[in-house]
Amino acid sequence: MILNGARRSIVDEPLVYQRNYQVEWVAPRVNLRELALLRFIQGKTERELAQYFGRSKTAIHELLARMLKNDFRHANLNEAEKRHIFKSPNNKYSQLAILVIRKVAFYEKVSGKNPIEDFILTLPKTDQARFADVFDGIEKHGLSCPRVQFRQLRGKLWEIKFNAASGGYRIAYVMIESDTMVWLHAFKKKTQKTPASDLELAEKRMREVLGL
């Protein structure tokens, strides 16, 4: 074929249709019964469970919190398994039959001084705001409060762990009257393990609160 004096060849090219497919990996559903037995009877940590189920540690923590809040309703546990869980030494959440926290209170000395409040007021404003967020979050969401971890220290003494702008903080607490959380002692995290002096002070205040 000649166009404007130049020879050009026309080659019939096959039509090519291209369709793009987007493949999205969807994590398998977590078997809640298996999760409950592994956590509360075998004593697997949240990190181990996250690896086992292929989920994030945060996702596992939230599943456990919801399970406790719903009294294992969706875990398909039989009564024997429930009794076993609540009696198990690995069940660090046994005290969490108190699932709904209606009030957070501060420990007060006989003199009326409030060491928790005094400690918070010494902190930078951003950290004070974080304490307020934790306080409000626990009263609203209970033990499902986001970006907060709960850990048993000794017996009825428990600990709240969270991060603020200037670093990590710990609050030792005890539950009273079924749905009231009393903050006993607050301090800034400097070591991985709770210092003995902080632990002893928290236990002393706990005994006062419980009348022991």
Keywords for this entry:
212 residues; YaeB-like fold; five-stranded mixed sheet
Q: Give the amount of beta strand, in percent.
A: 15-25%
Order of helices and strands: EEHHHHEHHEEEEH
**What is the CATH third-level topology name of the largest domain?**
YaeB-like fold
Q: What would you give as the CATH superfamily of the largest domain?
A: RelE-like
Low-confidence stretches: 92-99
N- and C-termini, Cα separation: 105 Å
- What number of structural domains do the residues give? 2
**Helix amount:** 25-40%
Which CATH architecture of the largest domain is right? 2-Layer Sandwich
Q: What overall geometry do the principal axes of the alpha carbons give?
A: globular
For the sheet with most strands, the description reads: 5 strands, mixed
**Number of helical elements:** 7
Rg over alpha carbons? 27 Å
Explain the overall architecture.
The chain has a 5-stranded mixed β-sheet with strand order 3-7-6-5-4. Strands 1-2 form a two-stranded antiparallel sheet. With 212 residues, it is of the alpha+beta class. The chain has helices at 32-40, 46-53, 57-69, 79-87, 115-121, 125-141, 196-210, and strands spanning 2-3, 6-7, 103-106, 149-154, 157-164, 167-176, 180-188. It folds into 2 domains: 32-93; 103-210, RelE-like (YaeB-like fold, 2-Layer Sandwich), CATH 3.30.2310. Residues 92-99 have low confidence and may be disordered. The protein is 37% helix and 19% strand.
